[in-house]
Specification:
single chain, alpha/beta, Rossmann fold, 2 domains, eight-stranded mixed β-sheet, 11 helices
Length: 364
């Protein structure tokens, strides 16, 4: 599989939903496979909150493959021998695209809290600019899970003629109070950490030790991504062998797992980027800019494939099913599948064997 990683710079202004302008800006992106002569084999993949443009394959010297490597590659469901796959890093991220720690042109000082709030609609608009610059005006499919699934649906609504198929997994039509409440834990944990300094930290301040506030907030995120059943299966009520049961801070295995994963995450993910992307998730609503959700969905011309997971407690299956029912009542091309999964929201990343055949069928 041929992998290329690039950064595209734009000097023309990007008009944001808030009314602010981002100029100039950069988008990091990765491609897999080769485009055919008329570029009719392009598939756009959209990433979730903690993801990046590195969706598949492995870099030289790296120990971990891309976040959807089980789905994308030669001979896999998204077959890179047949399709040219593009994954772009969203605006606001800390993995190459312009974000809050990027330099605020013309100075060399980071934006920090002066960076504008970006929405999912803005992220999609920026990706359209990237694709246009690459000479791509239509794609075979847009695929994404969680925030990536939100982007896929936003593409369907805002750019009705852009894609043949939209495949949205573990997403919703609008972020609801339950999810916003989980995100609030992370927001406040970061803001109240003294080392956050109201965003006035240096770029590498947390590379060694991470930021405790982000680590704590990420624990709330992990809880929402899993399910009670998956935690029982993964950890049972096992206690850490080296910790005493009657030590005050002795730990169960699930506690050690949370500590380890969230501590590492806080060393590689910028806390301001986390706040900005969470804001984009919280403000997501397909109907904003249109008279109603019904009118927004009525714009869609692509075949929409909605995949939910039974134990997803972040974006509940009935949210995806509601989109399907509205589109069905309109006579639009919509297909809904609820995957029988005990893994929770993260099933779209973990239990790929439960839906990869479905994606093969859609693309075929």
């Amino acid at each position: 599989m041929k992998i290329e990683t690039k950064i595209k710079s734009f000097s023309s202004p990007l008009y944001l939903e808030s009314g602010r302008i981002l100029e100039p800006y950069e988008i990091a992106y990765e491609t897999y496979g080769e485009p055919n002569e008329d570029k009719s084999n392009v598939i756009l993949v959209c990433h979730a909150l903690s993801g990046s443009h590195h969706a598949a394959g492995m870099y030289d010297g790296d120990r971990k493959e891309g976040w959807w490597d089980s789905l994308i590659g030669d001979g896999k469901a998204v077959d890179t021998r047949e399709y040219f796959v593009i994954c772009a890093n969203v605006l606001g991220s800390c993995f190459g695209s312009t974000g809050p720690m990027s330099e605020n042109y013309p100075s060399n000082i980071p934006y920090r809290l002066q960076f504008p709030v970006v929405t999912v609609k803005d992220m999609v608009r920026a990706q359209m600019q990237l694709l246009s610059a690459l000479g791509i005006y239509h794609v075979r499919a847009v695929i994404g899970g969680s925030m990536g699934g939100m982007q896929a649906l936003q593409f369907a609504v805002d750019y009705p003629n852009f894609s043949d198929d939209i495949i949205s997994l573990a997403a919703t039509y609008e972020t609801r109070p339950w999810t916003i409440s989980f995100n609030k834990v992370a927001i406040e944990a970061i803001r109240r950490d003294p080392r956050f300094k109201n965003g006035n930290y240096d770029k590498d301040d947390f590379r060694e030790d991470g930021l405790d506030g982000l680590a704590i907030g990420r624990i709330a995120g992990h809880i929402s991504y899993l399910s009670p059943h998956s935690m029982d299966q993964k950890f049972s009520k096992n206690y850490v062998g080296t910790d005493g049961l009657f030590e005050l801070f002795g730990r169960y295995e699930v506690e050690r797992y949370m500590e380890y994963n969230t501590s590492n995450f806080s060393k590689i993910f910028d806390p301001l980027s986390y706040l900005y992307i969470v804001k984009a998730i919280n403000t997501f609503s397909l109907e904003r800019g249109y008279d109603s959700l019904f009118d927004a969905l009525l714009r869609i011309k692509s075949a929409v494939h909605l995949i939910s997971f039974r134990s997803d407690y972040l974006f509940f299956p009935d949210e995806m099913e509601y989109i399907h029912k509205v589109m069905q009542s309109n006579g639009q091309s919509s297909f809904y599948t609820e995957i029988d999964s005990d893994y929770g929201h993260d099933a779209f990343l973990i239990e790929i064997d439960k839906f990869d055949d479905l994606i093969r069928e859609i693309l075929a």
